[in-house]
Amino acid sequence: MKPALSGRHEADGVLCRPSDHGAARLLGEAYLSGEVIPPDPQAGETLLRQAIKSGDTTAMTVLGKAYLDGPLSGNPNLR
């Protein structure tokens, strides 16, 4: 039997503990780049935002670059 994940978050079907911000950032980066897994910019953005909420400052930089000149640069929600 698997131990329960107390305090887990669910974002688009992905489960991460609040303390797993590093994992959320890495998976978010992978979704944005599409090099290791099929690209999914929305999932990447969601995971990076989750990492940011947990205090991951590197995720802030990655998300900012994605908005500036990466896969999220045409995001209409930034207005």
In terms of DSSP E residues, the strand content is 5-15%
- What level of helicity do the residues show? 40-55%
Structural class: mainly alpha
Number of helices: 3
Order of SSEs: EEHHH
Cα separation of the termini: 47 Å
Low-confidence stretches: 1-9
Give structural notes:
The protein is mainly alpha-helical. It has helices at 21-33, 41-53, 57-69; strands at 9-11, 14-16. It has a two-stranded antiparallel sheet with strand order 1-2. A hairpin with a 2-residue loop joins strand 1 and strand 2. Helix 1 packs antiparallel against helix 2, helix 1 packs parallel to helix 3 (57-69) and helix 2 runs antiparallel to helix 3. The longest helix is centred in the middle third of the chain and has 13 residues, at 21-33.
Offer a concise description of the structure.
The protein is built from 3 helices and 2 strands, in the order E-E-H-H-H.
What is the fold's blueprint, element by element?
Layout: E1 9-11, E2 14-16, H1 21-33, H2 41-53, H3 57-69
Antiparallel strand pairs: 1-2
Helix pairs in contact: 1-2, 1-3, 2-3
Features:
79 residues; mainly alpha; 3 helices; 8% strand
